[in-house]
Specification:
single chain, about 400 residues, alpha+beta, five-stranded mixed beta sheet, 13 strands, binds protoporphyrin IX containing FE
């Protein structure tokens, strides 16, 4: 049987090395690397790692995500690494019909109605963090605000506020940014499983009004969920709840701290913050990486797909390619930052609330913050995301004690 590279050549699909694992430019300007990929072709082949197709425009990404029969999440290996590293984070690591049943069970835990009552607590935490920043008189947004608000809130919701918060954040980071060996990946997941499993067990004995307790009541097709799967789903929430939202929120404050016009717009018209969040997610798409595996032979953009072919969704480049200019009031706003298909982000409602409240509180407390003109950003990147390493900001003297 011909290799993926040979089939690409025969079908006229370009070959371009897109190498998340080794391309150091991701640490300097990740968006330039995504934009370069998007400019190659809507679909190309990358010989990096074990070799994979790259879907690099919005329509191709959408086609793949909306065809889960053809494009499977199994086996759930990290698409672009040299080593074959399998993950176990249900329901991402499931296909229909199993996925359909589990997702249906999870939806009520994260629905708009379920998460709306969390708003006051999120606002309270945001203000507490701003109090600390005010007192300190200086701030690194990633260290003191964007990197803390989601983690603090989410760990509390998962019944873990009393635990070793620093270690739990490190674990979420390792699960997100490391390019691990199988041994390391298994060890990271096992440690997180142990932490969230203990919280679920504690809530069985002593229920509370929180997400950990909601997990204890979860039923799939009317039946209790096998413990390993239940804990695996809580583990995914642990990782996504801390790291993804922090990272995405950091990008927003980075943009607004540099572009005065946009900062002023949101101060004058806070009611447009939700629109601005969508646009900033589109342009600074955090959760770039995601992969799929062909479940059957078929065709994509003229490429003859064979069962087992790996495909990588370059969502970040694809979303930016539709227009690289930031227009905070853009409507409609098509983006794939929360996914587009059956695995679309279950945490999107709570993440949007966190980012909206975070922005509201931040601009109320520090309306004139700015990123220093000589700041040179550095980026952490890895298996699932790209993140600002730090974001020092100048606060308005009037707001600093
Ligand atoms: C701004 C923050 C977030 C972003 C950008 C984001 C992004 C994504 C994306 C792109 C997917 C789809 C993956 C795919 O199709 O392969 C996804 C799935 C998922 N996300 Fe999020 N996420 C965020 C926050 C959260 C939070 C706070 C939670 C907390 C519960 C969460 C839980 C999930 C779950 C459970 C799935 C899997 C859904 C399924 O497989 O059916 N996410 N997320």
């Amino acid at each position: 049987m011909s290799s993926m590279a040979e089939r690409a050549e025969r079908a006229g699909i370009p070959v371009h090395t897109f190498d998340l694992e080794n391309d150091q430019r991701f640490g300097v300007d990740p968006f330039a690397v995504w934009d370069e990929a998007a400019s190659v072709a809507p679909l190309f082949y990358s010989p990096a790692g074990r070799g994979f197709l790259v879907a690099a425009d919005y329509d191709t990404v959408k086609t793949v995500l909306q065809n889960p029969r053809m494009w499977s999440n199994l086996p759930s290996t990290i698409t672009y690494t040299k080593e074959d590293v399998e993950m176990d984070v249900p329901p991402i690591t499931m296909d229909p019909p199993q996925h359909t049943a589990y997702r249906k069970a999870l939806i009520p835990l994260f629905s708009p109605r379920a998460v709306a009552p969390l708003e006051p607590r999120i606002r309270e935490i945001a203000h507490q963090l701003c109090d600390e920043i005010e007192e300190a008189g200086e701030c690194d947004v990633m260290r003191d605000f964007a990197g803390r608000l989601p983690a603090q809130f989410f760990l509390e919701w998962l019944g873990l506020a009393e635990g070793d918060v620093r270690r739990m954040y490190q674990l979420a980071q390792a699960a997100t940014f490391d390019f691990p060996t199988q041994e390391q990946r298994t060890a990271i997941e096992a440690e997180i499983n142990g932490i969230v499993g203990a919280s679920i067990t504690a809530r069985r004995a002593e229920p509370a009004d929180d997400l950990a307790t909601a997990f204890t009541h979860l039923r799939v097709d009317g039946e209790p969920v096998e413990e390993g799967l239940l804990v695996g789903m809580a583990t995914l929430a642990f990782i996504a709840g801390q790291e993804t939202t922090s990272t995405q929120f950091g990008w927003m404050l980075w943009h607004l701290g540099r572009v005065e016009e946009d900062r002023r717009l949101l101060q004058e018209r806070p009611e447009v913050i939700p629109d601005a969040i969508e646009e900033l997610m589109r342009v600074y798409n955090t959760g770039g990486p995601a992969g799929r595996v062909a479940a059957a032979d078929g065709e994509l953009n003229g490429y003859p797909v064979r069962a087992g072919d790996r495909l990588f969704l370059a969502r970040c480049g694809a979303d930016r390619q539709t227009d690289r200019q930031v227009q905070l009031l853009r409507t409609p706003n098509r983006h794939s930052a929360f996914g587009l298909g059956i695995h679309r982000c279950l945490g999107s409602h709570v993440a949007r609330i966190e980012m909206r409240i975070g922005l509201e509180v931040w601009q109320e407390r520090f309306p004139d913050y700015r990123v220093p003109a000589d700041f040179v950003p550095q980026f952490r990147w890895g298996s699932f995301m790209q993140q600002l390493v730090s974001l020092p900001v100048e606060l308005s003297p009037a707001t600093v004690a």
